[in-house]
Design a protein that fits this description.
Elements: H1 11-16, E1 31-32, E2 39-51, E3 61-66, E4 74-78, E5 82-89, E6 98-100, E7 124-130, E8 135-140, H2 145-148, E9 155-160, E10 169-178, H3 193-197, E11 205-208, E12 215-218, E13 223-230, E14 237-241, E15 247-251, E16 254-259, E17 265-268, E18 273-279, E19 287-292, E20 300-307, E21 337-345, H4 349-355, H5 378-386, E22 390-392, E23 406-408, E24 413-420, E25 426-430, E26 435-440, E27 443-444, E28 450-451, E29 453-456, E30 461-467, E31 472-478, H6 481-485, E32 489-494
Parallel strand pairs: 1-4, 2-5, 4-9, 10-13, 12-20, 21-24, 23-32
Antiparallel strand pairs: 2-3, 5-7, 6-8, 8-9, 10-11, 13-18, 14-17, 14-19, 15-16, 15-18, 19-20, 21-22, 24-30, 25-29, 25-31, 26-27, 26-28, 26-30, 31-32
Length: about 500
């Protein structure tokens, strides 16, 4: 089966067609790195280009990329170091760069009109900030991100620990999917009503590090640190390393007690990351598939782990897996100020709200959109035409600049109780902070993990806690980029108006 499908295919057939992932997945990423100095300086250029996403006989795909490659260059610095990144815009439209997961000063966060003016075509903007937390992060635009990210503008940012875990190889996989036509060009149907009101732009071709491989060479006895980054607009991955026992050691860059994920499957919503220890315990000359199992009934093989003939060692190494904690302020749960945020909207949103005992903006009391018009009546159609499809506490965003939905006292602990009153998953991202995930549907989480993006299932309730110690106006939004563009974002203000670092 070809990995390419015309853009008129159904969502089911799009998902089912994602069976090819790149042999280049284990090729080294292009890297931007400097010798030790007080400030590590980099230059990143956003521009149109071409990339070989799919193998011959298909041609190269026109993309937008950083420094001519998809993904963009891997930036690596040591924890505590200072970065200075000059971003040159050679696109025909404005752009910015957001440093996803890094606790940067507000002015360096890359949100257009909220924290900076967009970088106009032909201009250069310099970002400068410290790297307080070791871990796996990434960078991408926040200006028209549903298309700019969807056309290839993203790259990995790795902050190295002073004392990393011992492994044989440290690998980064940027996972993405692309909606390609038969000619291997990117379908230009960005922002269509179906994607905006359902589960976002799910593609038909999945890549690792911008390539489509069939197998990855490994050796028995080898220990790999695998840094997984989900750079897709909307696809959620559920990776099953068949015959192996992956151990998660960090989530969204933040160390967590080493543990095996439930059912052995690593679930990553858009923008989420996981650092995984993978011991190669298979037989020489054997193959073990990595299968994406998130969408039930639409499972597909991502890639094979292909064992070489000569083992590295016979037994798995007995090396510690614990990472040192990053310098995050521990929230005082007992003394925290509590807040509530409800997410609603989208297709079937009225039905879910009715089930959960509420009513959605624009609904009648029976939970249907647009009174007697039903879900496809005047309410939903009117929202789709206006672009207001998703809501936070009853408000749909119409751009990045808006009145704060919450104003938080600086240096105080806060708990946010979130309710997903929709029929769809939402990876919720909070800029400028990491938070502890306290509970899901009232049950305490086992690891109280630190994250900056938490995946919420339909109808799920999640509590998070953090210390609001980074002043400024910060975006709080769903990282399914079509949901964000259709209203599912808000501003949380930390400190007084105009107060920021």
């Amino acid at each position: 089966m070809s990995v390419l499908r015309v853009p008129t295919l159904t969502r089911r057939r799009f998902l089912a067609s994602t069976a090819a992932i790149a042999a280049g997945a284990m090729l080294p990423l292009s890297s931007v790195r400097t010798e030790a100095s007080p400030v590590a300086q980099f230059r990143v250029r956003a521009a149109p280009g071409r990339a070989r996403l799919v193998p011959e006989p298909h041609g190269e795909t026109p993309v937008w990329s950083y420094n001519g490659s998809v993904p963009g260059p891997e930036i690596r610095v040591r924890q505590g170091g200072r970065l200075r990144v000059a971003v040159e815009n050679r696109l025909d439209e404005e752009t910015t760069v957001h440093w996803h997961g890094i606790r940067v000063p507000n002015a360096m966060d890359g949100v257009p009109h909220l924290t900076q003016m967009p970088i106009r075509p032909g201009e250069t903007f310099t970002y400068e900030f410290d790297a307080p937390d070791a871990g796996t992060y990434w960078y991408h635009p926040h200006q028209r991100s549903l298309e700019q990210v969807g056309r290839g503008l993203y790259g990995p940012l790795i902050i190295e620990e002073a004392d990393p875990v011992r492994v044989d190889r440290d690998l980064t996989w940027l996972l993405d999917d692309w909606r390609l036509t038969k000619s291997a060009t990117i379908s230009d149907d960005f922002g269509n009503g179906h994607d905006m009101s359902h589960n976002g732009r799910v593609g038909n071709t999945v890549t690792i590090n911008g390539r489509i491989p069939t197998s990855i060479a490994v050796r028995r006895g080898e220990r790999i640190r695998l840094r997984l980054i989900n750079a897709a607009n909307a696809r959620i991955f559920g990776l099953d390393f068949e015959g192996h026992e992956p151990v998660v050691i960090a989530l969204d860059g933040q160390p967590v007690a080493p543990h095996r994920p439930p059912d052995g499957v690593i679930v990553l919503g858009p923008a989420m990351r996981a650092d995984v220890i993978l011991d190669m315990t298979g037989d020489t000359r054997s193959k073990a598939p990595v299968v994406d199992r998130f969408y039930k009934g639409l499972e597909y093989k991502l890639v094979d782990l292909a064992y070489e003939a000569t083992p590295l060692r016979e037994d798995r190494p007995d090396w510690p897996m614990d990472l040192a904690a990053n310098p995050l302020a521990e929230p005082d749960i007992a003394g925290a100020v509590r807040h509530e945020i409800m997410f609603n909207g989208g297709m079937m949103g009225g039905m879910v709200m009715a089930e959960m005992g509420g009513a959605m903006e624009g609904e009648s009391s029976n939970g249907m959109m647009g009174g007697g018009g039903g879900m496809m009546g005047g309410g939903m159609m009117g929202m789709m035409h206006s672009g207001k499809i998703w809501f936070l506490n009853g408000v749909a965003a119409e751009g990045h600049v808006m009145d704060p939905m919450l104003t938080l006292e600086r240096d105080r602990s806060h708990v946010i109780a979130m309710t997903n009153a929709t029929a769809w998953h939402h990876p919720i991202h909070f800029h400028g902070h990491s938070f502890r995930v306290l509970s899901r549907n009232g049950s305490p989480t086992k690891h109280r993990e630190w994250q900056d993006t938490v995946l919420m299932a339909p109808r799920e309730k999640v509590e998070i806690a953090f210390v609001a110690d980074n002043p400024g106006d910060w975006m709080f939004h769903c990282h399914i980029l079509e949901h964000q563009a259709a209203g599912m974002m808000g501003v949380i203000r930390v400190g007084g108006k105009g107060e920021r670092t």
